[in-house]
Each structure stands twice: as structure tokens, then as C-alpha cells.
Amino acid sequence: MRPPTIRLEEVSHRYPDGTLGLERVSLEVLPGEGLAIQGPTGSGKSTLVRHLNGLLRPTSGRVLFDGEDVGGWHVAELARRVGLAFQEPDRQLFRPTVWEEVTFGAASPASARAALEALGLEQLRHRHPLDLGYSRRKLVAIASVLAMATPVVVLDEPTTGQDRRGLELLLEMAARLRAEGRTLIVVSHSQEFVERACRRWIRLDAGRLA
Ligand code: ADP
Ligand code: MG
To answer: Whole-prediction pTM value?
Structure first.
């Protein structure tokens, strides 16, 4: 499946408690693009990326895939196109072994194996994800998203807590995704990661595009 052109039109999001998470953000992401989203804590980065797979819906404004408003699409339809690895891996992990976690939504057993291998997790496949350290849990959550083989991959702070080896594995994975023509959207505070993995950077500040 070819990645869609993703367009946000004046997207605002207000949480039920009244907090304005995102304010009139307009953005276009082309197929195969590598886009980094930066900005301070609380600036709306996670709120923005949660709109790409339907986890959140705009309070106002629209999200368009190839010109079509996805407001009426079921989450499952969006999930076939966009895989999102959460900032907080423990909100995503729920299976008793790494292997089951990564195969749960996988496109095929082969894509699950490839994802485990890409992130250096093969040896840990029989372990319980929640028994692993934070940086490994993060890699498991990312691997389970990669295994879905979606044309668009969104990673919310994948580099947090990673050592040099983890960073290099993530960079190789990003390069492979880009070479396959898949779209990569990454929230990251690692300047090295965004410079090497992405071609365009945007910055959010207090919910607005800076
Ligand atoms: P970032 O990812 O850039 O750190 P977030 O998108 O998580 O920022 O948060 C943007 C704003 O929305 C912040 O003010 C944050 O406190 C608020 N926010 C995030 N999630 C929720 C929520 N579930 N309910 C209420 N406010 C939230
Ligand atoms: Mg965040």
C-alpha cells in the first residue's frame, strides 16, 4: 500500500478538561517523507501524532489522506495505513511475551521476525515485555508497530532512554523504512537522530506550529 499524502487543515484539539493541546495546526506530509516534530514538553507533539491514527479526533479542523477527510473513517481503517508507537510503551504493551506482542498485529510472521531482528530483540522473544528495562520495552513497542508493515510509521519519542546501540538500531531501521518509500514521522529530542533520519523538521510551541 502506497503511503497517502497526509494533510492537517487548521487542526485544533481541546481535551475534555479544557486544555488546548493543539491550536490551528496546518501541515502536509508527502509520501515517503521523513518528518521530525520537535518542541518543548507540553507543546502538543503527542497530541498531534495521535490525530494521525484516529486515537484523537480534531475538535475543529480536518485530517485528510489523499484529499479525503478521514473524520468518518473507522480507527481500523486508519490503523492499516498508520502505525503509531506510543511515547509511553507501557500503554501499548499487553501480551505475555515479546513474540506474542510483536506478532499480535503483525502483517505476517515474517514481518514480525524482521521487526524483532531490526531492533535486536530476537534473543528476548520469550521474555515478558514488562520484565524488560524501559529502553527495551520501548524497542518492543516500536517493533510491534513495524511488524504491522503500515505505509506510514509514527514514532513518539523512540530515542528516549536508548544507549548508542539502541540509537544506531533505530537509525538503521529508519533508513530502511525510507528506502522502502514508507513515510516516517518522528517526535524526538535527539538532534542526531532527527538530522540523520529525517529531511524536514517542524517545531511546535504551546500547541502551535512555530
Ligand atoms: P508533548 O507531547 O509535546 O509533550 P502533549 O501533546 O502531550 O505535549 O500535551 C500538550 C498539552 O495537552 C499539554 O498542556 C498537556 O498537559 C495537555 N494534555 C495532554 N494529554 C492530555 C489529556 N489526556 N488530558 C488533558 N490534557 C492533556
Ligand atoms: Mg509527548
So the answer is: 0.96
